[in-house]
Amino acid sequence: CGSSFGLFLSHSLSSVSEEDLTHFRSFLPKSAVLTDAEDLIPFNEDWLKKYHGNSRVVLRPKTTEHVSKILKYCNERRLPVVPQGGNTCLVGGSVPVKDEIILSLNSMNSIRSFDPHAGVLTCDAGCVLENLEVFLAEKDHIMPIDLGAKGSCHIGGNVAANAGGLRLLRYGSLHGSLLGLEVVLADGTVLNEMSTLRKDNTGYDLKQLFIGSEGTLGVITGVSILTPPKSNAMNVVFLSCDSYDQVLRTLEMAKKRLGEVMSAFEFLDDDALGSVLGHMSNLVCPVEERRSFYVVIETSGSNKDHDEEKLMAFLEEVMGDGIIADGVLAQSETQFKDIWALRESISESLNKKGAVYKYDVSLPQSRMYDLVEDIRKRVGSQSLITCGYGHIGDGNLHLNVVFPSFEKKHEEILEPFVYEWVSKEHGSVSAEHGIGYMKPKVLHHSKTWESIRVMKTIKDALDPNGILNPWKVLPEKIQ
Ligand code: FAD
Ligand code: MLT
Ligand code: ZN
């Protein structure tokens, strides 16, 4: 790669004026233009309370045509825009850096159609993931994606972030289950790629570009997605292990013995469990004794007896061989939900404790926990909690370090150390949360400069004035 600093990302962008607001009010309903300082607070602040924008206006379009009119105008006026879904982004991508206009999709939340034979759902981008799950449950289907933020995040936000989550192990990434998208480009052009076909090799697959584009290439307004049939039999087990090596051996054994019915394989360490138990007084540790690590395995199949028989045989084998210390198979719907709640509430519980520095990395599974241990040594007693958990079945670790507050001195203990560590192992500095505002400067640890330059070429082609989510994803200086 070249060694000189060549390209600089700089565009001259404008700020919103009273005339701009008057223009937006001329075609949007009154409730779709928020300018009251109090109303703007939750839109300007991210979920972690780490990033704070200074936007003066939130626009809440109701139709794709509204989005098109807004972007056409903003492009002509060089007004920067941050597309926002449920604002659950963990890398500062969903809030303004300065005074960008916030374009919230939360008033575009209608289900457009469902084809029960093909299992294809089409809907507006602002539909909340959990609402889609509830809608599909009545039709005996499920969403191919599930995550702890389901009660707030939008399907459009999931697509824009290429969210992974708890079901990726079974149903793959959104690059596979997304069939079509409707996207409004920076100049207001509506790109109708709302295919409902599974197979369609008619030239470039444009929708793929927008999956994981984090609001920098276009605003997603509609989604067409393949939804799997609901399984008749669901089981979940909670296991404890004394060492990380035992966790890895459990994974190996689960792949062999449960392969075709396994739908999730998650792990958490005892610090992560302690954080949740301290936060959620209604939950208890499912196994008798606390150990160093825990594993959550879910199976979904078509025959309960068959799956339970397999699970019991698996449990007997891993216990008999001393691979796990203890294990519990959920005996009721409540216990099923409680075990999942333990795993899904880790991030919320950490967020309540203090300032959470989050590292979401892909690594070879054998090396994953070494990173947590190296960070524990490095941080010593300075952090409130240092813990590891995540989608180990997908090679994705969440390393979280909680300090009393966000401060440069804390960040400097962790960065660039974590990124350099991951880079040496040929891992990814972002497995599923994206790049946002947090990681453009470390993108080169996981992408070559050649690739980053191609990304910049695509960005310039689709958004030549740089109005869409500026200062996110691409680094300021490109070599
Ligand atoms: P936002 O946070 O609003 O936005 C995310 C990004 O997409 C931003 O860059 C934004 O500009 C852009 N964007 C949003 N909507 C649109 C749109 N319609 N068009 C174009 N761009 C848009 N992530 C995972 O991958 N796996 C997990 O398991 C997971 N669990 C989580 C659990 C919790 C408790 C929380 C708080 C977050 C979690 N996340 C996870 C992170 C986050 O990526 C997801 O919550 C979700 O995908 C974000 O959706 P959202 O609607 O909140 O998008
Ligand atoms: C999770 O897997 O719980 C999410 O990605 C959120 C997090 O990393 O905290
Ligand atoms: Zn995750």
Automatic annotation (TrEMBL):
Entry GO terms, CC: mitochondrion
GO MF, one annotated term: FAD binding
Keywords per UniProt: FAD, Flavoprotein, Oxidoreductase
Superkingdom of this protein's organism: Eukaryota
Domain (FAD-binding PCMH-type): residue spans on this chain: 51-230
InterPro entries: FAD-bd_oxidored_4_C, FAD-bd_PCMH, FAD-bd_PCMH-like_sf, FAD-bd_PCMH_sub1, FAD-bd_PCMH_sub2, FAD-linked_Oxase-like_C, FAD-oxidored/transferase_4, Oxid_FAD_bind_N
Co-factor requirement: FAD
Family note: Belongs to the FAD-binding oxidoreductase/transferase type 4 family.
Protein name: D-lactate dehydrogenase
Organism: Stygiella incarcerata
